[in-house]
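Researcher: I'd like a candidate sequence for this fold, 709 residues long. If you have to choose between options at a position, lean toward the conservative one.
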């Protein structure tokens, strides 16, 4: 019991030592290395984060720097000068669009009163014909009055035409001349003098087309309409349509600087007439060229729409901002966002100080967003990414990349910065690719260290388990050994006491009767036999333990040995009241075996059968051949063995813990020897038992004998 308690204590101690000396320090070391690793990662992350701020800001500055550079180039006074110098309307338009492409945006120029000077379009207000005093009293005015009198009051068109013709030669200015020519043409047309009228209108269109009539419409356009009418009246329909088509093309190309309502009015008018004419399917060729013309984009209409947008959205804001900034000193250049269609437009503006002496001009630039997205931004971002290694994107309010249209994932490691100098509704998304790389390595390292630590802990636990098991086995063996010493002492003591007792009796009492003397000799012999059996067992065991046990295999009859042993043991059995039943096959072939060892096997088995059969004292000994084996079987009807003990009883010193066993004497070596001997003969031992019913021990030995070597 003491040893058992000691075993438990030893086990606890070892667990305690393991926890304290191995597991705990290892876990602490593991934790420390983990936390150092995490801290180092945190530190690197912080450095990268602060770097991200610095580099992000620098990247934003560079982008804005590029944009400012571009803006400066666009708003160069030379660009405006280039446009203002041009006189020809058509050339102005083509030059304007060329310049717009160059600077990726549209320029505009405002005068001191914020009127749009460039791009040039028709003015809103109709310039009234200058009718000064000198003109009022002139011959021209008198002739004109007379002409109008004949035309409108008398309806005498040929007389009126005469006076108008006189006016043409008396006209003080080209403007007046245009007025007179138009009236002359009108009267000639009314008096059906088509040829002359055609000539007059042709001259009006060619020489004075740019002048405006009282309604603010260029004479060129009016002349075009009249020429069309004349040709129609002269039944020269095809020619009339050609004239009309050329008029249509000229208006669309901005030959006359008219304003948007006037443009719309004439275009609608001409289109409705032409559509009407072509609906009957006549003049297919002219119709084709009309349709082709219609498909082409009208650059003048674009200019008109642009100036219209400027007037509505940009100019008022520029005016307000410049006025405000002028209050604080110098008028500051700036930028603003103006709504345009569904999108917006970025407008940069600035005062042009030395553009024309003593006059204030404001230059402006409306950025072309598509070239900004397609050309300027990609290039700047690419350069910056190459230089800084940062991942840069420009995103709109909904987080969509404005260059690709894809939704960008903003992570906690990315930084979104607003533009400082440009009022873009976009943000610059900056992220550090090293971040995700860092995270990935950290995750990988964490996993690796985690697995390693788990593995180490598992190994330690396994080691501790094996150690504890070993210790418990060791302490169990120690316990069994102690028990063995205790048992063996008892085993030795009883026969020795008896031998001494009867020896002394024989020595002292010389007058002992013959029967008594015989009994004393018998007891001394029997007890010494028992003693020598016991000592033989112990010696055999120790030889086996030391590996020195040798067997003397000889060919012979197993039947004989079994019979002899049984015969010599019969006395013991019968004396204890046992009946023996023998079933010994006499035809068993001869085989190789160690006679002494086999006798010891049978004696041990018979001795056990006797010891553990307290009630039904029957022993059956069988020897038979089975499947090439000789089987020696000893069966009893004793206490039996529980299934959990059947495998343990063959272990050295092992004795089942129950009442009967503890009452009987024994060393716990008998079955160990039997097993060893059986195995040395190339065989084995088998037990079938049921507690309370008895046991059958079978020693199975191959007839072929033990294997050599
Ligand atoms: P010992 O007999 O000296 O105790 P053994 O090695 O011969 O040692 O037997 C080991 C144990 O096996 C015994 O203590 C006993 O508990 C059990 N045993 C052996 N033979 C029998 C049997 N025939 N019936 C019941 N129990 C047995």
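Model: Candidate sequence:
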């Amino acid at each position: 019991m003491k040893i058992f308690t000691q075993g438990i204590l030893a086990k606890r101690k070892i667990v305690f030592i393991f926890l304290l000396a191995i597991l705990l320090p290892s876990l602490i070391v593991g934790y420390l290395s983990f936390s150092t690793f995490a801290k180092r990662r945190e530190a690197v992350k912080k450095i990268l984060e602060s770097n991200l701020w610095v580099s992000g800001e620098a990247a934003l500055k560079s982008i804005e720097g590029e944009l400012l550079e571009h803006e400066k180039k666009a708003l160069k006074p030379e660009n405006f000068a280039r446009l203002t110098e041009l006189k020809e309307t058509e050339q102005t338009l083509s030059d304007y669009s060329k310049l717009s492409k160059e600077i990726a945006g549209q320029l505009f120029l405002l005068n001191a009163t914020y009127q749009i000077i460039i791009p040039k379009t028709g003015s809103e207000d109709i310039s009234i014909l200058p009718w000064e005093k000198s003109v009022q009293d002139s011959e021209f005015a008198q002739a004109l009055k007379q002409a109008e009198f004949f035309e409108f009051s008398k309806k005498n068109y040929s007389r009126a035409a005469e006076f108008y013709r006189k006016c043409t030669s008396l006209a003080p200015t080209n403007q007046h001349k245009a007025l007179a020519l138009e009236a002359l043409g009108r009267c000639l047309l009314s008096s059906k003098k088509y040829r002359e009228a055609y000539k007059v209108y042709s001259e009006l269109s060619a020489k004075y087309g740019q002048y405006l009539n009282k309604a603010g419409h260029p004479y060129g356009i009016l002349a075009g309409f009249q020429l069309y009418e004349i040709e129609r009246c002269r039944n020269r329909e095809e020619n009339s349509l050609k004239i009309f088509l050329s008029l249509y093309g000229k208006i669309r190309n901005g030959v006359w600087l008219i304003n948007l309502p006037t443009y719309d009015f004439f275009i609608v008018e001409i289109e409705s007439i032409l559509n009407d004419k072509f609906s009957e399917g006549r003049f297919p060729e002219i119709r084709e060229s009309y349709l082709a013309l219609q498909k082409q984009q009208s650059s003048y209409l674009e200019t008109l729409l642009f100036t219209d947008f400027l007037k509505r959205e940009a100019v008022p804001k520029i005016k307000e901002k410049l006025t405000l900034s002028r209050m604080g000193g110098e008028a500051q250049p700036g930028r603003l966002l103006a709504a345009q269609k569904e999108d917006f437009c970025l407008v940069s503006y600035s005062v042009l100080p030395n553009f024309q002496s003593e006059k204030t001009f404001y230059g402006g630039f409306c950025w072309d967003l598509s070239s900004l997205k397609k050309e300027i931004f990609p290039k700047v971002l690419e350069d910056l990414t190459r230089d800084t290694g940062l991942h840069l994107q420009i995103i709109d309010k909904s987080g969509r990349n404005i260059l690709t249209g894809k939704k960008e994932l903003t992570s906690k490691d990315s930084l979104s910065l607003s533009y400082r100098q440009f009022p873009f509704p976009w943000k610059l998304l900056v992220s550090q690719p090293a971040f995700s790389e860092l995270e990935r390595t950290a995750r990988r390292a964490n996993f690796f260290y985690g697995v390693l630590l788990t593995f180490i802990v598992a190994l330690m636990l396994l080691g501790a388990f094996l150690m504890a098991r070993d210790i418990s086995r060791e302490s169990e063996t120690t316990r069994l050994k102690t028990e063995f010493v205790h048992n063996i002492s008892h085993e030795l003591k009883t026969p020795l006491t008896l031998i001494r007792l009867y020896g002394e009796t024989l020595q002292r009492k010389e007058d002992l009767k013959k029967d008594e003397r015989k009994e004393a000799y018998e007891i001394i012999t029997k007890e010494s036999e028992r003693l020598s059996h016991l000592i033989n067992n112990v010696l055999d065991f120790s030889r086996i333990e030391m590996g020195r046990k040798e067997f003397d295999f000889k060919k012979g009859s197993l039947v004989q040995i079994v019979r002899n042993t049984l015969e010599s043991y019969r006395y013991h059995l019968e004396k204890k009241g046992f009946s023996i039943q023998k079933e010994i096959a006499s035809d068993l072939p001869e085989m190789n075996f160690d006679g002494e060892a086999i006798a010891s096997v049978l004696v041990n088995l018979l001795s056990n059968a006797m010891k553990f059969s307290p009630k039904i004292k029957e022993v059956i000994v069988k020897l038979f051949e089975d499947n090439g084996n000789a089987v020696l079987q000893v069966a009893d009807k004793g206490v039996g063995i529980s299934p959990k003990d059947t495998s343990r009883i063959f272990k050295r010193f092992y004795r089942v813990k129950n009442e009967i066993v503890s009452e009987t004497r024994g060393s716990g070596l008998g079955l160990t020897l039997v097993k060893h001997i059986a195995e040395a003969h190339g065989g084995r031992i088998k037990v079938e038992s049921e507690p309370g019913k008895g046991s059958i021990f079978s020693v199975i030995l191959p007839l072929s004998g033990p294997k050599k070597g």
